[in-house]
Amino acid sequence: MNDYNFTQNRELSWLDFNERVLYEAVDETVPLLERLKFVSIFTSNLDEFFMIRVGSLFDLMNINPESKDKRSGMTAEEQLKAVYAAVKPLYKKREEICLSLEKSLSMHGISRLSYTDLSSNDQKFCTQYFKESIEPIISPQIVDTHHPFPHLKNKVIHIGAWLKYKAKDVLGVIPLPDALPSVLFLPGNELRYIHTEDILLANIEEIFYNYIVREKVVFCVTRNADINIDDDTFDIYIDDFRKKMKKALKQRIRLSPVRLELSSNIGKDFLEHLKMRLPIQDDQIFITSAPLKLNYVFSLENMLPETKRKALTYPTFTPYMPSDFNSNESIMKQVIRKDRLLSYPYESMSPFLNLIKEASEDPSVISIKITIYRLAKKAKLVEYLCAAAENGKDVNVLIELRARFDEQNNIDWSERLEDSGCTVLYGFEEYKVHSKICLITRFDHGQIHYITQIGTGNYNEKTATQYTDLSLLTANQEIGQDAAEFFKNMSIGNLDGYYNKLLVAPVSLNTKLIQKIDEEISKRNQGKIVIKVNSITDIDLIEKLKQASCAGVQIDLIVRGICCIVPGVEGKTENIRIRSIVGRFLEHSRIYCFGTGSSESMYISSADFMTRNTRRRVEVACPIFDRDVKEKVHKILDACLSDNTKARILNSDGKYTMPQNTNNPIDCQQLLMNLSSQSENKVTVTPPKKSTFWDNIYKFKNLFKK
To answer: 347 and 404, same structural domain?
Structure first.
């Protein structure tokens, strides 16, 4: 029989994490508009949770209803019941917090208004907007014997109307067109706005003018979006992986509903009709008077005058050039002399980008190879890689087309890279390539030399200013040789390669981590482990950490999100301490430390302690050898372990509490910002040398796509 005394369910643990995100919205030390952003982040997090995790549980329940979660012993059906029950109170908290923040913001001249709040002039303005911009493009539909129930697209706002025509009840549905903005800003000196769906709702009688409108509501359907690209529904004869992913994206909008959100209570007949048509159950229905979507919140600050923006948002922070870089010297030469570590977002991504730019122009560079998981919509990295290919370098890009919700963006970039002469690979059908590794190969004085970059986060220039990540730049030739072997194996579809220094999933990462924990177990009370990851779910690693705790090894885990191991359980995990940090930046770096002093083994990695990372993805962990780089990583870990402001401590009952002894408040992210700001050199990224010819070809090609 499995022992569930020191483990917990991953879905419920994730909901605990998202609740910590929501509670940032009530932290009075956080600027007011930033607090509303946290409500928006909580909302979008929950959307993805329902689309992916809840969707997966429904799939599992249908495929193998008797299957039990290894960490909690719950079947998929039991997990779904627990999830829906846990989400209900979160909706209530979200509503209370959101409405309270909106009330506070209205005192600063930022107001969300309902239609009944509008003055007569504002109503005239909205009526004109409805006539000119909304009515011409909406597609209202009734549902009766001659008009079938429409497909309600995933996460699209709809207006529902319960209509009466003669003696019959009729359902009316209007989807909010994608072309319309989510809010309409009203004229005046203050920042006042109304949701577009509220304008549509107010004019529903005019739209269904030949019916009696008995009830009306704003609603939104969330659908299962967890696509299995190897599902039998796909044509096995499609051999172009990019075409296969495009087909998968089309399927996503039609998957089964997992949640129905309503802006208000509706009558029994109206509700029963929606439940039958979707179909959906009572526990899947959530009613809230807070906005169903809050993405627009991030654009509000750009519309504020400077003084008000400063008062309501975080102080502007610009990443700095690391103090050990000389901005007047070649990045490549500096890396060849000594390993360097970039710490995002406190330090800029620019040294890495400029390294790629230098490589694209350096005659000694013969190739650049890189794995890409997520990119920004505008990516200087792609321009540099394209420039390198156009300059005759051998550029190989392994791009993962299944980066969830970034699939289309990656498809577009893969086409751009191919157009410029890069060799583009798509990895493996059964294993996502999640590693963050780049290899520059130089031929200098008759010899091959490597420069390797390995990181914990994506090559995304936008999120590098929002996520905490680490990026190692090294000329260590043993690491470079492993990286060369890695790319060779990826290009020939070999997942079983051998590596001297790098830990690579799925072949060696898990076994090497267990070996490292065993080494600490052999030291018993002298053993020490410090791990920083986003999530811990891998049952083998959890069991091994429990064994280490039982042997007296002191273990500190910094786990931002899902944590399926429970600390402080007598006889099992009493030597494990776990903390989560939610703050201004998303904690994203993965660090593994085993031992102390000169015998310490330290790695940075793209992999969390999750089964999907250790067994079903291609991941890379890289050892840190340089003493100064190790010291820099320890400063980050020490800051996280000393945080008593944004950190929350996981207790043996599975609940999170604030740290005690907060007489000297420490916010690790603010501390690291302060340390990075001691550098005086702000960085700039040199624009790439553009190829007018290839840019024109790319634009010409896309013109025909449209």
So the answer is: yes
pLDDT digits (tens, 9 = 90+) for 347-383: 999 999 999 999 999 999 999 999 999 888 889 999 9
> For residue 394, is it within any domain?
yes
Q: Nearest Cα to 90, choosing from 290, 319, 367?
A: 290
Query: With a threshold of 0.70, does the pTM exceed it?
Result: yes
Number of domain units in the chain: 4
524 & 547 share domain: yes
- Domain carrying residue 206: 114-280
* Assigned domain for 455 exists: yes
| pLDDT tens for each residue of 306-324 | 999 999 999 999 999 888 8
Q: Could you give the CA distance from residue 280 to residue 220 in angstroms, rounded to a whole number?
A: 13
Do 405 and 533 lie in one domain? The reply is no
Reported as half-sphere exposure (CB side, CA atoms, 13 A), residue 26 has a value of 12
**560 within a domain of the structure (yes/no):** yes
Q: What DSSP assignment string belongs to 387-444?
A: HHHHTT-EEEEEE-TTSTT-HHHHHHHHHHHHHTT-EEE---SSSEE---EEEEEEEE
Number of other residues whose CB lies within 10 A of the CB of residue 638: 13
Q: Which of 155, 200, 160 is nearest to 180 (CA)?
A: 200
Q: Does residue 511 fall inside a structural domain? A: yes
Between CA 183 and CA 563 the distance in angstroms is 37
Residue 387 in tokens: 């420039």
Radius of gyration of the chain (CA): 27
What are the tens digits of pLDDT across the range 376-427? 888 999 999 999 999 999 999 999 887 676 788 888 888 999 999 999 998 8
670-702 pLDDT tens trace: 999 999 887 545 444 444 443 433 344 333 344
Contact 565, 545 (CB under 8 A): yes
**Domain match, 548 and 648 both:** yes
CATH number of the domain at 379, please. 3.30.870.10
- Tell me the catalytic residues: 434
Report helix, strand or coil for 584.
coil
538 shares its domain with 472: no
